[in-house]
């Protein structure tokens, strides 16, 4: 344990009688001091003793260090001597090894010709047996020595190829016959071993057959037997993957070139099993059912490529990617060549059917509506005048837009884009995607949205129509929602296919043209505001009475604002809400500003049609205050400012004559034209009094 001085002194005091540490003892400082002095002397003696011991050990250590250094020097000298001996021994071993190698080369030079001579002698002996026509050797008669026989007959067959035919035709035919027999026996033996599952025997036979012409036939037999019972389920692709995984584990134990054998198996599966399966699935619907044909083509091609991805894990040689791509192409080339034509044809007929089914459900016969020129001019004139230029189209409240139709069209196009991405050649992908996009534009944007906008425009009533129903805003609302869906599909499914091609700018331009075309029609639909103003005029004309602002009994007016004001404000609030629900972004503010300005002009002109008594002026101020509350719903600063100014103008109807100049010079009226101020003052019943005219002048 570490030395702690305080604890050491405490223990010393505790052991000393009179130290005062134990209870019941009187403290004796002299005795404690003597004990401390004695103990210090003992410690000094102990310190001197230990110091002498340390010095002795240091001397001993120095002595041993010198001895150890001397011993190390002696060992180094011994090591150098040993190293020299080792070098000499190594040189001697190298010399002996060189002699041995030279001797071995000499022996091999003598032995090799001798072995060749022995081998040639044996072959000559076996050749003589064929020449005599009688095979007596045990190697040919013993079936267990088929391996040795195969080696011999293979060599004799090569020798026979070099012999002249006229002198050795008979022996050559016998050797060839035996060669063929042994080859058949080996293949049969390989087949039997494969059925028994004897991998080692299959490996031996395959190694022997490797030098025979029938080796490829051996591989064919192996491939054929591998597939027996492998395709029993309905999923041929999964069966093929499982078969290839099983063979991949086995083929390396049997053949010396496993990658070639496995590649040949895969080629056989693709060219026989898969090609037959694909043909059966596609030819059935190729001419009769385009939808099912395209679905099957996409599904089969996808499953084939997925199978190819799994097979990429195996060793199939150097360029397995190209190998598998060629196999896939060989199966589908006849179907992919005209794929896009089938796709476009199907998409066109399917989209037309979806639209026609919708219009039939509405009992609507689609009609041709002009979009410009004389007809457009007539329509504009008709909406602004009472000239009988032909009846407008009554849509009975139908927008002729359907989210269900849109979803169906977008879903069909989405599937077409997916098929296009999978089935198109990379060089043709942007072009094919653009053609599909053009179909979507034609049927969704032109035949559906644009037609609905045209019909909605044609259905806008004239501004003097009574109880007109403004369905065009409903058309705008639905068209806006639909176009957002269209834009989403453009970004999600088309952009990835064309993003790195020149077709990108073409598609963006086409989309921009569509937007501009629709915006033009929506701008034309601003005439709906005329109808709204017309409805307000009808309400004011029907509900506002001259006596409202010039009551017979000035002291008995009980209403806060007129009935016409209540109905107009209720109508305006509904239209504002409808506009907000129908549009989004800056379009809302633009349309509401236009409506607000026209609404202000209508009320301004309406108020100038009446004369106002003092109480009538107060009621007019109350009406304008209510109109101003309604204007706040527009949330447009300009509109609110206009009604604030109108409210200030109405104060001129009730202000005392003496205060007219002060009111006219107020903050809100100071910048107005004096004629406008004068026109409002003239509406007062007491205007003709000399006093009022004098004060205003």
From TrEMBL:
The alphabetized list of GO BP terms reads: exocytosis; Golgi to plasma membrane transport
| InterPro entries the record matches | Sec10-like (IPR009976), Sec10_HB (IPR048627), Sec10_N (IPR048625)
* Pfam families associated with the record: Sec10_HB, Sec10_N
What keywords does the record list, in alphabetical order? Answer: Coiled coil, Exocytosis, Transport
Coiled-coil intervals, chain numbering: 40-78
Where in this chain does the record put each Exocyst complex component Sec10 N-terminal domain?
A: 29-137
All copies of domain Exocyst complex component Sec10-like alpha-helical bundle, residue ranges: 148-696
UniProt keyword Transport, yes or no: yes
Q: Which cellular component appears as one GO term in the record?
A: exocyst
Similarity annotation: Belongs to the SEC10 family.
Name the PANTHER family for this protein: EXOCYST COMPLEX COMPONENT 5, SEC10
Protein name stated in the entry: Exocyst complex component 5
- Organism of origin is Chroicocephalus maculipennis (Brown-hooded gull)
What lineage is this protein's organism placed in? Eukaryota, Metazoa, Chordata, Craniata, Vertebrata
């Amino acid at each position: 344990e570490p030395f702690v001085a305080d604890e050491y002194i405490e223990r010393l005091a505790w052991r000393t009688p009179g130290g005062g540490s134990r209870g019941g003892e009187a403290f004796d400082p002299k005795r404690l001091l003597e004990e401390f002095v004695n103990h210090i002397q003992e410690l000094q003696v102990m310190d001197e003793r230990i110091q002498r011991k340390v010095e002795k050990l240091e001397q001993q250590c120095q002595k041993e260090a010198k001895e150890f250094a001397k011993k190390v020097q002696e060992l180094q000298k011994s090591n150098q001597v040993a190293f020299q001996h080792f070098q000499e021994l190594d040189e001697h071993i190298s010399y002996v090894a060189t002699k041995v190698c030279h001797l071995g080369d000499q022996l091999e030079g003598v032995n090799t010709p001798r072995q060749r001579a022995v081998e040639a002698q044996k072959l000559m002996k076996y050749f003589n047996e064929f020449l005599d026509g009688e095979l007596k050797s045990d190697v040919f008669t013993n079936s267990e020595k088929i391996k040795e026989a195969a080696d011999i007959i293979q060599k004799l067959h090569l020798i026979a190829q070099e012999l002249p035919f006229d002198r050795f035709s008979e022996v050559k035919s016998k050797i060839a016959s035996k060669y063929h027999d042994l080859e058949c026996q080996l293949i049969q033996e390989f087949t039997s071993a494969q059925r028994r599952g004897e991998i080692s025997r299959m490996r031996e036979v395959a190694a022997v057959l490797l030098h025979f012409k029938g080796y490829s036939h051996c591989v064919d037999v192996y491939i054929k037997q591998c597939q027996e019972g492998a395709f029993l389920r309905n999923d041929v692709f999964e069966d093929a993957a499982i078969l290839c995984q099983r063979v991949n584990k086995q083929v390396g134990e049997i053949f010396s070139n496993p990658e070639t054998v496995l590649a040949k198996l895969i080629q056989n599966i693709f060219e026989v099993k898969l090609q037959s399966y694909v043909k059966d699935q596609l030819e059935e619907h190729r001419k009769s059912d385009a939808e099912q044909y395209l679905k099957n083509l996409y599904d089969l091609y996808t499953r084939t490529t997925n199978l190819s991805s799994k097979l990429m894990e195996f060793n199939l040689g150097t360029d397995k990617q190209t190998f598998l791509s060629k196999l896939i192409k060989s199966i589908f080339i006849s179907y992919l060549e005209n794929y896009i034509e089938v796709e476009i044809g199907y998409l066109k007929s399917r989209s037309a059917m979806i639209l026609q089914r919708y219009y039939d459900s509405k009992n609507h016969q689609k009609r041709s509506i002009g979009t410009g020129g004389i007809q457009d001019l007539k329509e504009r004139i008709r909406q602004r005048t009472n000239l009988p230029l032909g009846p407008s189209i009554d849509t009975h409240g139908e927008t002729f837009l359907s989210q269900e139709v849109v979803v169906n069209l977008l879903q069909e196009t989405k599937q077409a884009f997916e098929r296009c991405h999978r089935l198109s050649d990379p060089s043709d992908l942007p072009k094919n995607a653009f053609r599909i996009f053009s179909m979507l534009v034609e049927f969704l944007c032109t035949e559906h949205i644009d037609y609905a906008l045209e019909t909605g425009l044609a259905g806008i009533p004239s501004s003097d129509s009574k109880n007109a129903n403004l369905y065009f805003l409903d058309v705008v609302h639905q068209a806006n929602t639909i176009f957002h869906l269209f834009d989403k599909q453009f970004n999600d499914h088309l952009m990835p296919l064309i993003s790195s091609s020149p077709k990108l700018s073409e598609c963006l331009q086409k989309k921009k043209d569509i937007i501009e075309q629709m915006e033009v029609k929506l701008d034309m639909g601003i005439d709906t505001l005329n109808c709204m103003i017309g409805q307000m005029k009808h309400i004011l004309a029907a509900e506002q009475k001259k006596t409202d602002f010039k009551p017979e009994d000035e002291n008995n007016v009980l209403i806060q604002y007129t009935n016409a004001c209540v109905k107009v404000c209720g109508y305006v609030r509904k239209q504002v809400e409808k506009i907000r629900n129908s549009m989004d972004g800056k379009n809302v503010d633009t349309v509401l500003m236009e409506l607000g300005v026209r609404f202000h002009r209508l009320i301004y002109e309406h108020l100038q049609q009446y004369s106002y008594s003092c109480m009538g002026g107060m009621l007019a101020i109350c009406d304008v205050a209510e109109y101003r509350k309604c204007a706040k719903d527009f949330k447009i600063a300009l509109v609110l400012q206009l009604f604030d100014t109108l409210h200030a103008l109405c104060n001129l109807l009730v202000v005392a004559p003496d205060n007219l100049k002060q009111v006219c010079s107020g903050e809100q009226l100071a910048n107005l034209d004096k004629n406008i101020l004068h026109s409002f003052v003239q509406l007062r019943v007491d205007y003709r009094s000399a006093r009022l005219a004098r004060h205003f002048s």
